[in-house]
Specification:
The protein is of the alpha/beta class. The chain folds into 3 domains: 55-172 and 183-240, no CATH class; 254-399 and 462-548 and 663-710, Rossmann fold; 403-453, no CATH class. It is built from 20 helices and 20 strands. The strands form 4 sheets. It has a 7-stranded parallel β-sheet, with helices on both faces. A 6-stranded antiparallel β-sheet has the order 4-3-8-7-6-5, with helices on one face. It is elongated and about 115 Å long. This is DDHD1 Phospholipase.
């Protein structure tokens, strides 16, 4: 493998010599060998084909290509950088003394997400657990056209036979790999019998594989009688060495930004789901990077955070009390919706929080240990959370816990007691209660000083969160039920301080029944302002999000109890955004807690109640208060409508300058033109992972600093 290789230039000129890949003893990439860039000169021909040597010799490390296969699909080639290092580790494996294989460290591949164990010919992920190993294969002989490798056992036999028969012989000078020339009239000069096939050599460069199945023999006999040659009738042409040589330059860009992808409920039911979903998001982001960000020398890496499977929670107690009737449906609910109840339980909430916190810190520490330059070069971290994962992630970042809410309620009760009239005896007992509570607080504080409390101590992450992307998130409902109400400042700090997370972004599909808006929790009048529409992936020259003006969602209307006035106000007006007429966001987010199954108080309503409460009132026009509605809910809605002042707006549908958010938080996917709204309600909550629109949206914000100058120049042009 370390011998000099003489090769053809492919242009008919004089040959030149280059050194093969030499093996060294120093470490490189954690593989137990070194690779000198000068030892592998690039030897490509103008047609894009691989180099051809003047005489038949052993394949060089750059001509061999390694492959991997996931989910029992076709073999996929490793990039040149990975394949070279795997091949050199493979050759070092057989260089041990006394006939024993040398110890070779695993080879890090696929942007550092996987490692390859050359001895077992398997690959496995670094950052998450996976039951099925990924097989890898060494490719030497390849099928014409598809360039899929032959199975390794057959390939080794063919390669050994080829070297035994033709080693040292001259190759044809004019050889074009892109065109398979017929070999009519030529007889095989050499043959090799395999288990179910045989190989014929019609020349050194013309090698064909034939099937020995009965049907193939009959077809071959018929076509030969009709005047077709044996090779052109039923043979498959083979090529020795891969179509493109492996080079060190074929290397993945350096990771400058990592994204932790956090799952929501249901992971117990399918533990590998978040890994598959993250893989979909990663693959989609790669396509977007190649199209829009290929000029950048860095890239964003996505890592799945699987926090559920390690938790014990109640063990099998819930399973033991589950009735046997419709057991399949009950098991599905136990594995999914039960996570919501666990999180609202004071007994198990801390375990869920700790599980996610520890997994986030473990992944970050592992990534930094394998990529020591990441922190040195200012690498950034973002989090993408889905469903309930958004709430748990938020609580970890802010350190929120139910004890704090309980203390607020106690304080409120004390204030109410002070305001009402009470007898002398009540007043005396209340004073004793205050003294006792004060003494209890002092004892608790002293105890906390001696022993750190897991309840009062906020969870800590080892990294600063640059962007927090919520997808299909019920976070707004949880915050509303915790008492968060709109303020007068347009700052994100009202719900998530910038010192904790630089940017909060709430992504949702318009028909996702679990997703709610966050902006009306900061400024109430944003319930009447449309969420920002996420650009389609193929939109030409889209306007940057920070330059998109807020558009008015529903026209301001005077409160009235007359049904006629309600129906009149429901008609579209010039101030209504024409795209958003069919949807309603006019209701304040603080008044929709009753519609959520994710709140602790309404958990018993179930999935059916959730769908009914969100979609049972939808219509073709913007929603208004139902005619004749009475009771506490109707009165509550009337009360909130009466006190709402009219918003300043223009006939263009855009809001005039007033109190605005520092930056927009709610971003909405566009509905498809032929999309069924009720079918989307079922599928939209899990439709985020493979969306090209979302992938472009995420990368746009994460690459924002790198593209500021480019965006500025494009805006000047506009």
């Amino acid at each position: 493998s370390g011998a000099s290789l003489r090769y053809s230039t492919g242009t008919g000129g004089e040959g030149s010599e280059g050194e093969g890949a030499g093996l060294g003893s120093s470490d490189s990439g954690g593989s137990g060998f070194s690779l000198a860039a000068t030892a592998l000169p690039e030897r490509r021909r103008p047609g894009g084909g691989r180099p051809r040597y003047e005489v038949v010799r052993e394949l060089g490390a750059e001509e061999v290509r390694w492959f991997y296969r996931e989910d029992r699909k076709t073999w996929k080639p490793f990039i040149g950088y990975d394949s070279l290092r795997i091949e050199l580790a493979f050759r070092a494996l057989g260089s041990g003394g006394a006939g024993e294989p040398a110890a070779v460290e695993p080879v890090c591949v696929r942007s550092g997400l996987y490692e390859v164990d050359v001895a077992s010919a398997e690959s496995y992920p670094v950052y998450w657990n996976q039951t099925e190993k990924i097989p890898v294969m060494r490719g030497q002989w390849f099928i014409d056209g598809t360039w899929q490798p032959l199975e390794e056992e057959e390939s080794n036999l063919i390669e050994q036979e080829h070297l035994n028969r033709f080693k040292g012989q001259q190759l044809q000078e004019s050889f074009d790999m892109e065109i398979s020339k017929p070999v009519d009239g030529k007889e095989a000069i050499h043959s090799l019998k395999l288990s179910r096939n045989h190989v014929d050599w019609h020349s050194v460069d013309e090698v064909y594989l034939y099937s020995d199945a009965t049907t193939s023999k009959i077809a071959r006999t018929v076509t030969q009688k009709l005047g077709f040659s044996k090779a052109s009738s039923s043979g498959t042409r083979l090529h020795r060495g891969y179509v493109e040589e492996a080079t060190l330059e074929d290397k993945p860009p350096q990771t400058s930004h990592i994204v932790f992808v956090v799952h929501g409920i249901g992971q117990k039911m399918d533990q590998g789901r978040i890994i598959k979903n993250t893989a979909m998001m990663r693959d989609t982001a790669r396509k977007v990077e190649e199209k829009y960000f290929s000029n950048l020398a860095t890239h964003v890496e996505f890592l799945p955070v699987e926090w559920r499977s390690k938790l014990t929670l109640d063990g099998d107690t819930v399973d033991s009390i589950t009735p046997d009737k419709v057991r399949g449906l009950r098991d599905m609910l136990n594995s999914s919706a039960m996570d919501i109840m666990y999180y609202t339980s004071p007994l198990y909430r801390d375990e869920l929080v700790k599980g996610l916190q520890q997994e986030l810190n473990r992944l970050y520490s592992l990534f930094c240990s394998r990529n020591p330059e990441f922190e040195e070069k200012g690498g950034k971290v973002s989090i993408v959370s889905h469903s309930l994962g958004c709430v748990i992630t938020y609580d970890i970042m802010t350190g929120w816990n139910p004890v704090r809410l309980y203390e607020q309620l106690l304080q409120k009760e004390e204030e109410e007691l002070e305001e009402r009239w009470m007898s002398y005896e009540e007043q005396r007992l209340l004073e004793e209660l205050y003294i006792t509570k004060q003494r209890l607080r002092e004892i608790e504080e002293r105890l906390h000083e001696l022993k750190a409390s897991t309840i009062s101590k906020p969870p800590v992450l080892k990294f600063k969160v640059e962007n927090f992307f919520c997808m299909g998130s019920p976070l707004a409902v949880f915050l509303a039920l915790r008492g968060i109400r709109p303020g007068s400042s347009g700052s994100q700090d009202h719900i998530l301080p910038r010192r904790i997370c630089n940017r909060l972004l709430n992504i949702f599909h318009p028909t996702d029944p679990v997703a709610y808006r966050l902006e009306p929790l900061i400024l109430k009048h944003y319930s009447n302002i449309s969420p920002v529409q996420i650009h389609w992936y193929n939109t030409a020259n889209p306007l940057p999000y920070e330059h998109m003006k807020p558009s008015f969602l529903n026209p301001s209307k005077e409160a009235t109890s007359a049904p006629e006035a309600e129906s009149a106000s429901a008609a579209p007006s010039p101030t209504t955004s024409p795209v958003m007429v069919r949807r309603h966001y006019g209701e304040s987010i603080t008044n929709i807690g009753k519609a959520s199954i994710l709140g602790a108080a309404s958990i018993g309503k179930g999935l059916g109640g959730m769908l009914f409460s969100r979609f049972g009132r939808s219509s073709g026009t913007p929603q208004t208060m139902e005619a004749g509605k009475d009771g506490p809910e109707g009165d509550e809605k009337k009360a909130t409508t009466v006190g709402t002042p009219p918003l300043p707006h223009s006939s263009s549908g855009f809001l005039e300058p007033t109190v605005e958010l520092e930056h927009r938080i709610d971003f909405e996917l566009r509905e498809g033109l032929v999309e069924s709204r009720y079918w989307s309600a079922v599928t939209s909550h899990t439709a985020y992972w493979s969306s090209l629109d979302i992938a472009l949206f995420l990368l746009t914000f994460m690459y924002k600093q790198d593209q500021e100058e480019t965006e500025k120049s494009s805006l000047d042009t506009i």
